[in-house]
């Protein structure tokens, strides 16, 4: 049986392009965050970052108005192209739209993804509430054997109503 150890540092180095950011330090921060999060998959940001300074830096990065999804994903898209180019044969590109829902009192804080039934009113009619969140349409490249190579595209949006 073959055992493999995930190299979070090596993986993060290959998936981030610091040059995609206007300020190179932002690319380095993303690389650091990815290394921390890859070492604690599924953990909340404070647990993955392990100390207050790194947690605060992660939140500052994520709320930075000059950072966008294109900057964040540029290195990954390039790494996906490189992996695909190194293979012979067909590559399949699978597309899907995913909804990320978040509980918010005010839909304007994050955006809406749709309406959902919540409960019945005093007349027995179904009431609807706005589901807050983001939508993502992504394209995932895989080999014909099912090996994922990475994302080739991703678009994020919200609905106003």
UniProtKB/TrEMBL annotation:
<dbReference type="InterPro" id="IPR012337">
    <property type="entry name" value="RNaseH-like_sf"/>
</dbReference>
<dbReference type="InterPro" id="IPR014735">
    <property type="entry name" value="Transposase_Tn5-like_N"/>
</dbReference>
<protein>
    <submittedName>
        <fullName>IS4 family transposase</fullName>
    </submittedName>
</protein>
<feature type="domain" description="Transposase Tn5-like N-terminal">
    <location>
        <begin position="9"/>
        <end position="67"/>
    </location>
</feature>
<dbReference type="InterPro" id="IPR038215">
    <property type="entry name" value="TN5-like_N_sf"/>
</dbReference>
<dbReference type="InterPro" id="IPR047768">
    <property type="entry name" value="Tn5p-like"/>
</dbReference>
<dbReference type="Pfam" id="PF14706">
    <property type="entry name" value="Tnp_DNA_bind"/>
</dbReference>
């Amino acid at each position: 049986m073959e055992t493999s150890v995930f190299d979070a540092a090596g993986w993060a180095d290959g998936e981030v392009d610091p040059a995609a950011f206007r300020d190179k330090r932002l690319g380095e921060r993303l690389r650091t965050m990815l290394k921390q999060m890859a070492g604690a998959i599924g953990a909340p940001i404070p647990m993955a970052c392990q100390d207050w300074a790194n947690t605060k830096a992660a939140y500052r990065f994520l709320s930075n108005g000059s950072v966008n999804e294109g900057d964040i994903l540029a290195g990954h898209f390039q790494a996906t192209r490189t992996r695909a180019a190194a293979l012979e044969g067909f590559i399949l590109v699978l597309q899907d739209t995913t909804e990320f829902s978040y509980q918010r009192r005010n839909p304007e804080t994050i955006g809406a993804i749709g309406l959902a039934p919540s409960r019945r009113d005093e007349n027995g009619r179904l009431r609807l509430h706005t589901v807050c969140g983001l939508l993502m349409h992504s394209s995932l490249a895989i080999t014909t054997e099912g090996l994922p190579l990475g994302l080739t595209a991703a678009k994020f949006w919200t609905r106003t109503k």
